[in-house]
């Protein structure tokens, strides 16, 4: 297993000493194929279960009931997490922890802090949406009629049990695996062609953030304002993942956001329409307020708590060269550097008089 070099930012974590130009392509294609295969297998299993129970499946419902269909949909999405973990380990030959953060692990304390920090922005965003609705359409109800306690309680149990896995899996796959695959392109400054404009641009998180946010948006069954709503959320969480050096901040808000959204649909009895529809401009404004406030709070907390934004030295691969873009990186040539077989792949033949052995 190869780990990233010291000073590597989160979106570059897949560019280890085992990186080759074709590795990200192979990894993404492999993950997509596995996801499709797993979904087909799960779909066939669901059909068999439905037939054995005398249920006629349709294109919109495997089990002919809202709650079993919801369980199935959440489990299908949740399977993306182990698939991208397996692909990163098998194809990219790197530890699973490199998907979580620059420290090579899930920073549980930071995740808890971010989850608590997500509560006020979420409450404020709903207050903003309610206010905008009352201004634009006075008297309009903010929530639909209550669907009944029995169905609601059972739905809440399912939501609390499965939605965290569904939301986290989307982060692992899109803000983690995909973002790092895109971000691994672009030669480092000390590599051949590392000084070209293309390499300098690819080293930035811009393309990784845009691709991650775009794919996240397109994978949701929304249209109109709803699609813009998801895009705002996806781009903001991708930026925050890069800035904080890990997925914890994005997971914290995404889980809480989805728990509230699914709970509202359960309250109204519209779970069959969850995560679909055209949304509203009030919803887009509310989401913009939510992510803007959350990003401000998390950035402030990250600075206060000294959260690592790049790979620290004690978590780096001892066989990897330091990231040349990191502050305080020593000169590339000198007796302190060991010249190994990997170095020639990055920087060419050993320079005369370098002192390397």
Major beta sheet summary:
2 strands, parallel
Quickly give the structural class: mainly alpha
Query: What is the general shape?
Result: globular
Beta-strand portion reads under 5%
Task: Summarize the helices and strands and which ones pair or pack.
Layout: H1 23-52, H2 66-78, H3 80-90, H4 108-117, H5 119-136, H6 149-183, H7 197-203, H8 206-218, E1 221-222, H9 225-244, H10 248-268, E2 276-277, H11 281-305, H12 341-347
Parallel strand pairs: 1-2
Helix pairs in contact: 1-3, 1-6, 2-6, 3-6, 4-10, 5-11, 6-8, 6-10, 8-9, 9-10, 9-11
Q: What does this entry show, briefly?
A:
The protein is mainly α and 357 residues long. It is built from twelve helices and two strands. The protein has one domain.
How does this model look, in words?
By secondary structure, the protein is an all-alpha fold. The protein has helices spanning 23-52, 66-78, 80-90, 108-117, 119-136, 149-183, 197-203, 206-218, 225-244, 248-268, 281-305, 341-347; strands at 221-222, 276-277. The protein has one domain. It has 12 helices and 2 strands. The longest helix has 35 residues, at 149-183.
Jot down its keywords:
mainly alpha, 357 residues, two-stranded parallel sheet, globular, disordered C terminus
